[in-house]
């Protein structure tokens, strides 16, 4: 156990370092960034906001990490969020309880995942094309459910899921933490994670080795749909309304980015859900820097792009290798005293 | 000879009847239903046509210009009396408008204008976005009455013309009033959820919101999201932080009725009403309307019966 903890820490060191740097940036633009108060029955502070607002991306990237580990991609998650939110909202508006609404939305999410999974695993359509279908059509389906309006609701149980708190902690934080830990435990305490990696590295050989890749692939897309539906319910509950046009818009790209910042290869294979979740927090912290800096909104995307390019460049294999070479070659030739002497002699 | 006279007489008898509004057929090419406001515009246009006894042929273009061009061509082929067009983009209309002109069918633009020679269309019915911002700013100037006030602004989608113009109009209205100062301005993308997220960060950055006296949002949806953020921070929206926004959507009227917001400026979905008025006047005695008909940007505050407006508007499709 201690061994796995240590290796997990080693795996996520770059992400933890980057997160620390981005949080420090936050602190520099807004010195009160780390202060957390307890007021009006809830924890109140910027750090809590990062955890809370990162929830949709964090939930999406749990499923997305597994999909990408099988060398796939799921572009439909943003649209599935919109569908799930619309389903949950229309169910409570029709007078059902919040439990029914939640279960209904999650079931629809799983159905969407199943659709993607069948297209990819059974009909062998390339994942990027297969999931594009639902990405385009999904928002239309959500619009049909809400009849083109922002469907608002007042059900306190459903609102609790997005805007409420449990012992002072915003509910979305608890939801993504719990789901992240649960999925990590399931794939890492069993052979499931290894089997998923095997499919991503070489599906043909893994099938010859006796892995039922078809069922596993369908399951992976199903989990992605489930995560997206949960994210969709949270987003709708947060604003007490299902906004079919805007809920989860472009969030699939943030989720993919979180997985990539988490150091997972888009070519499939080894993966770390914890690193992806840290990636999601990094993205949210970058958003927070932008909001707190008070810069005009014209700069938002430029700043975000610059920070993310920096993160990706630092993580790129070429730069890593170059850094390693510099460190390895610098040590024996230049002893630590030399620069000091040089400095003194020149003065 | 007798037959000819009879024919002429009957044509003359029919001609005024055909030009009377009662038997008028009008084609309407709508962009789509990308927003609640757009859906409301469609509903109101259909209602206006029905009330006036106009036979309205409706075509939804699903955000595509080629669909709109197709729709206009089919209206021309059907020989409608006039065409209403809500153009999805500004350019590329010259050819099809030329065809309408050759067929002597007047074209009236709704809500947006086009980059085409002005003789190709009869008139454009739009709101003045700068003026809307102006009305919002003027309301705050009057409401504050010289008291110092720190304003936060939720902008629309960066670079979009409503965001640019509503920002400009508001800034013009508060210029010269040194008591009013915009301390933070950020985009909320015209959506409820971004409005809430950005307002949360404003509240944290400005001493838990104690430093903020008013919020100006470029649309009501962002304001509705921000109201929730203000409540969650333990402040009273409408009292601790004054709220003014633009659009006049039903949920904003509900918020004003509950004392959680203060004012909204209407972007009327009834663009077709003034267009039909202009058209009827033109067909009756040839009155040529001005090239631009500006719709009223009406200010609604707590003084109005917001519950009644909410009830009236909630079924329009917002």
UniProtKB/TrEMBL annotation, chain A:
Molecular function per GO: transmembrane transporter activity
Keyword Membrane set for record: yes
Keywords tagged on the record: Cell membrane, Membrane, Transmembrane, Transmembrane helix
Membrane protein topology class: Multi-pass membrane protein
Keyword Transcription: no
Primary localisation category: membrane
Any one GO cellular component localisation term in the record: plasma membrane
Sequence intervals crossing the membrane: 12-30, 50-68, 75-93, 99-121, 128-146, 158-187, 215-237, 249-267, 274-295, 301-319
Annotated localization: Cell membrane
A Pfam family recorded for this sequence: BPD_transp_2
Superkingdom to which the source organism belongs: Bacteria
Name recorded for this polypeptide: ABC transporter permease
Lineage: Bacteria, Pseudomonadati, Pseudomonadota, Alphaproteobacteria, Hyphomicrobiales
From TrEMBL, chain B:
Signal sequence coordinates: 1-21
Protein's cellular compartments: Cell envelope
Source superkingdom: Bacteria
GO CC, any one term: cell envelope
Gene3D superfamilies listed in its UniProt record: 3.40.50.2300
Keywords: Signal
InterPro entries attached to this UniProt entry: Peripla_BP_I, SBP_2_dom, YtfQ_transport
Transcription regulation is among the record's keywords: no
GO MF annotation terms: carbohydrate binding
Entries under SUPFAM superfamilies matching the protein: Periplasmic binding protein-like I
Occurrences of domain Periplasmic binding protein (ranges): 27-281
Main location: other
Keyword Signal included in the entry's annotation: yes
Family: Belongs to the bacterial solute-binding protein 2 family.
NCBIfam families: YtfQ_transport (NF041827)
Name of the molecule in the record: ABC transporter substrate-binding protein
Species of provenance: Roseibium aggregatum
